[in-house]
Design goal:
heterotrimer; A alpha/beta (368); B alpha/beta (376); C alpha/beta (263); A: 368 residues; alpha/beta; four-stranded mixed sheet; 5 strands; B: 376 residues; abc type-2 transporter like fold; 69% helix; elongated
Chain lengths: 368, 376, 263
């Protein structure tokens, strides 16, 4: 035990004296929380919309006012002809242009349905759909205004009462911050661990240590211990920042969350160990850690991009990524207050045992 | 003057082709990125599970349910027998949304009273939930309008009273609104960024690590020749990858390419000034490859997060938006997307190209000066 | 000791100025060369000269300032004070001219492990501006002489240390430098390989190349025509091995070194 502690202390010095490791271990998670929590908001707002009003009637101006009063839209000015539409899109002057055709006011009185055109820059599909929705919502308001003038005319026969569970304000922080814990843990445990151990192999100090009475197992535990602590501290930091700075709710139990997180942490460490057992140089270890753990975790686990929208091979790969299960668990605990996750918990325990066994075995064979 | 540059370039290429691990990173990893990102990084709404509890069991209610399933967005979730099943499915993550059509729905409709259904959405992913809400209510609204028109057809006298404004939406550049069209050009930028910055950073630091940099320093080579010899192969490689990624984007992912190839190449050149400069700068402050990689990675992660690649810049806090004007990735993302999708021309991209080129010249000159200082 | 050192043959006094000597006469001429890093003076006003075709041993304990001095002579580091000429060119004003006239080989060899012997040779020739024909002709001759011809397609990483050392020497002299700087060139190789290496050095010196060598092996110091010993940034002894032994009353260069440095 004393030997392990000596090793752990040595490893801690390594980390503390290497500013770049510190940067990745401490500043990166903090910066990510701040960036995601503060800077990035998934809700689209301030979308610039231009108007081409060919009618110039009180009715058309009324419609324009309705549209511009939407909190998501900003007025990007008036156009005088359709020729200005595409150059404006290309230069990013506006995301959409509403064309109110000549005779709009007249048609409004005469025809059952009067049409306006909404021209949208579709390059960014998500934003385009959002602009379309906001403008249609504004038109709906305009319609109910007409309806108010002539009772009964525009009322629809069916309606939907919509309720949102678990995150009624649709805050993206509530979704992203728990996910960040999964990313940060993989980053610290898999990436830093694998590089630290490979470095020892590469510089030959591993051999040095192995000539002492320390067993390979003690060596691994001693090396991994500081990263386990840093990983836990980073995870806790992200969670606390999310809870108390960005107001992510905690409907479940901190203890339950800590338990599941520990299992996930072990999985990440085992992955880091496996990589370091396979990789010969730090460069290879870094690349493997990025390609085999971090990128899949960021892309395929449902951290940001919904897995349901992916083609089946990627969904399938997502099923062997530990973070896929952990994300379900941490979001379930924090936002839904769940305690039991028979499927996810079982898979995670299985993964932890399997990977740990593989890592230890692989390590012992490469040591000899 | 030029011959030594050629010799260094030849040596760099030789070393690259002999280092299998690095070669794999340079050639295979971008391909994987292109395909995995291309498919994974999409924000289209698809396969949203909706569990239905139809207590009305009338023709009208079945029509509404069919309308849900007929859309591209929704697929059937587990069937519910009682309202509390719906809540349980949502809690356990077995479904993403729930539709409850209460008893009396069709009677209300027939009577002309407002008939209402309950839609419940799992809000955990706020962004997706907001859009699911939009689609779910839009389907009910469409069904309403269809019903209204049917009534109006049957009773022409009523038609005159249903004055409404409706919008015809036309989506330029991407009529099917595929999010992939927006993501793939971003991935192209990502690929050339990683390859050029990482390779440059490593190329110099590795020579310092093994002691050959010293050997070059005592030779009559100027620092300019060394930089040129080391960066020219990387520039060539970056252009090859740009060409490859663009080809895959057009032929495999079926992206439009509306703009000019020449303009794309010109923008890439200005951009490479930045990435090469950053790589060189990092190499002058790093003693080991690991340090160089950590440093580069740190800057790349934040540069890319704040480039508008995943998250639109308009959504960021105002102060952060100002900060992004210093971010070279931002300009490149926007130009490449414009050239691919909108057929942007030189005047269109000028507002991005000028600041990018300025950042490029400053970064690269700074890197060369710093390199020279460390070098002699 | 100080008084004795100053009076030794071949040590120009600090009062000498460039006008008194023709720098072109010497392979290396150093006058009051000083380099400070902040408060620390690594090289403290050293002065000496090295004649053409001479094998000059540059000794000193670790940290005595040898490497700093060599870096200044190779034009890698600007002196804080003083001046030095290599092959007649001043290091402060014309470092680029010097770089064409010197060869440099360090303990780390400075070879590319992932290139073959031939490729290392061609590359070195290329960066020194030799034409393709010159590279082929001189390279062939050199590899033949170094006994590396049969291995020219082998990767450098697969060579034993002695071979790498010879290859590094070959690369350093491919462009026929007039002064060759060797910074602890024989670290870690076996006695036989060292012997062979010094045979090559003698051959080069016979051909008119000036050899400027640092080493920690005192038997190698015996091979030099003259040696200097640096302590704390100053040159405290400079003479032929035989006379140094005589002056200090020591039996071997090892004893001379220990006496001078350990004082």
């Amino acid at each position: 035990m004393r030997r392990i502690l000596a090793l752990a202390r040595k490893e801690t010095y390594h980390i503390l004296r290497d500013p770049r490791s510190l940067m990745v271990a401490i500043i990166m998670p903090i910066a990510m929380v701040i960036l995601y929590g503060y800077a990035i908001d998934m809700e689209l707002s301030d979308l610039p919309v231009g108007i081409l009003d060919e009618d110039q009637s009180p009715a058309s101006r009324e419609l324009v006012t309705r549209m511009m009063s939407s909190q998501f839209i900003v007025d990007a000015g008036r156009l005088s002809s359709r020729e200005e539409v595409e150059p404006g899109f290309r230069r990013g002057r506006f995301r959409a242009v509403v064309v109110i055709p000549r005779g709009f006011a007249e048609s409004l009185v005469r025809e059952p349905v009067s049409r306006v055109q909404v021209l949208i820059d579709g390059a960014d599909a998500t934003t385009a759909a959002a602009v379309d929705n906001y403008l249609r919502a504004a038109i709906l308001l305009f319609n109910s205004g007409i309806a108010a003038g002539r009772p009964g005319s525009a009322e629809l026969p069916m309606g939907a009462r919509v309720r949102v569970l678990f995150n009624p304000q649709l805050e993206s922080d509530n979704f992203i911050v728990p996910g960040l814990v999964a990313i940060v843990l993989v980053m610290i445990c898999a990436l830093l661990t694998s590089i630290a151990i490979t470095r020892e192999k590469e510089t030959g100090t591993m051999e040095q240590v192995l000539t002492t009475p320390i067993t390979p197992r003690q060596l691994v535990i001693g090396k991994v211990l500081p990263y386990l602590l840093i990983g836990s501290a980073d995870g806790a930091l992200v969670l606390l920042a999310g809870r108390f700075v960005f107001g992510v709710p905690m409907h479940g139990s901190w203890w339950v969350l800590a338990g599941y997180s520990l299992i996930y942490l072990l999985i990440a460490l085992a992955l880091g160990l496996l990589i370091s057992a396979v990789a010969a140089t730090q460069r290879v270890a870094m690349i493997m850690a990025l390609m085999a753990t971090l990128l899949p975790t960021m892309l395929l686990s449902g951290f940001i991009f919904p897995r349901a929208s992916m083609p089946w091979p990627l969904q399938w790969i997502g099923q062997i990524i530990p973070a896929t299960y952990y994300l379900e668990v941490i979001r379930g605990i924090m936002l839904k207050g769940r305690i039991w996750f028979p499927l996810e918990g079982g898979v995670m325990v299985g993964m932890a045992l399997l990977l740990m066994a593989m890592a230890v075995k692989k390590f012992e064979t490469t040591m000899e | 003057m030029f011959r030594p540059i050629f010799w260094i370039a030849q040596k760099e290429l030789r070393q690259l082709f002999r280092d299998r691990a690095l070669l794999r990173v340079v050639l295979v990893v971008p391909m994987i990125q292109l395909f995995v990102f291309g498919y994974a990084a999409n924000t289209d709404l698809k396969n949203v599970r909706v569990s239905v509890l139809d207590e009305d069991r009338s023709e009208g209610s079945r029509r509404l349910v069919d309308a849900y399933y007929a859309s591209d967005v929704f697929v059937p979730g587990p069937a519910a027998g009682a309202p509390r099943d719906l809540d349980r499915f949502l809690l356990e993550g077995k479904t993403d949304a729930a539709l409850w059509i209460p008893r009396g729905f069709s009677e209300d409709l027939a009577r002309g009273d407002p008939a209402s259904v309950a839609v419940t959405v799992d809000g955990v992913n706020g962004n997706v939930a907001g859009r699911v809400m939009g689609y779910a209510t839009a389907i009910v609204r469409q069904e309403s309008l269809a019903r209204l028109e049917k009534v109006a057809l049957a009773h022409p006298g009523l038609a005159a009273r249903t004055h409404r404004v409706d919008a015809d939406s036309r989506f330029y550049y991407n009529p099917e609104l595929r999010s992939r069209h927006y993501m793939v050009p971003g991935i192209v930028v990502l690929i050339i960024t990683i390859v050029s910055a990482m390779l440059t950073g490593i190329a110099v630091v590795r020579e310092r690590e093994i002691g050959t940099l010293e050997q070059l320093m005592v030779s009559p080579l100027t620092s300019g020749q060394i930089i040129a010899g080391k960066t020219i192969p990387i520039v060539v490689l970056a252009f090859l990858e740009l060409a490859f990624a663009t080809t895959v984007a057009v032929l495999w992912f079926r992206l439009p390419f509306e703009g000019s190839v020449l303009l794309l190449a010109g923008c890439a050149m200005a951009y490479l000034l930045v990435t090469l400069g950053v790589g060189l700068l990092v190499s002058t402050v790093s003693a080991t490859q690991q340090q160089a990689m950590f440093t580069l990675w740190f800057f790349l992660v934040f540069g890319i997060l704040m480039s508008g690649f995943f998250y639109p810049i308009e959504n960021m806090a105002r102060e952060v938006q100002w900060l992004t004007y210093l971010n070279p990735f931002r300009y490149m993302m926007s130009m490449v997307r414009g050239i691919f999708l909108q057929g942007a021309t030189l005047p269109d991209v000028a507002s991005d190209l000028v600041p990018l080129a300025a950042i490029g010249v400053v970064t690269f000159t700074g890197a060369v000066l710093r390199f020279q200082k460390r070098f002699t | 000791m100080k008084g004795r050192g100053a009076g030794m043959e071949g040590v120009p006094t600090a009062s000498m100025s460039a006008g008194d000597v023709a720098p072109g006469k010497y392979a290396v001429l150093v006058q009051g060369l000083t380099r400070r890093f902040g408060d620390f003076t690594a090289v403290d006003g050293i002065s000496f000269s090295v004649e053409r075709g001479e094998i000059f041993g540059f000794l000193g304990a670790n940290g005595a300032g040898k490497t700093t001095a060599i870096r200044m002579l190779c034009g890698l580091l600007a002196p804080t004070e003083g001046e030095a000429w290599v092959d007649g060119f001043p290091v402060v004003a014309a470092p680029e001219k010097i770089k064409r006239r010197i060869g440099y080989m360090s303990q780390r060899f400075g070879l590319y492990d992932d290139l073959t012997i031939q490729e290392n040779v061609s590359f070195t020739g290329g960066i020194y501006g030799l034409s393709r024909r010159e590279v082929t002709e001189r390279g062939d001759l050199l590899l033949e002489r170094l006994g590396l011809k049969d291995y020219r397609r082998r990767l450098t990483s697969s060579l034993p240390l002695g071979f790498k050392q010879r290859l590094a020497l070959g690369c350093a002299v491919l462009h026929s430098p007039s002064v060759l700087f060797l910074d602890e060139p024989t670290g870690g190789v076996d006695p036989l390989a060292r012997r062979q290496f010094w045979d090559l050095i003698y051959e080069l010196a016979d051909g008119g190349t000036t050899i400027f060598v640092t080493t920690h092996y005192m038997d190698e110091a015996e091979y030099c025509r003259r040696v200097s010993i640096m302590v704390d940034g100053r040159v405290v002894a400079l003479d032929s091995p035989a006379r140094l032994k005589q002056q200090t009353g020591a039996g071997t260069m090892q004893d001379v070194f220990l006496q001078v440095v350990g004082r």
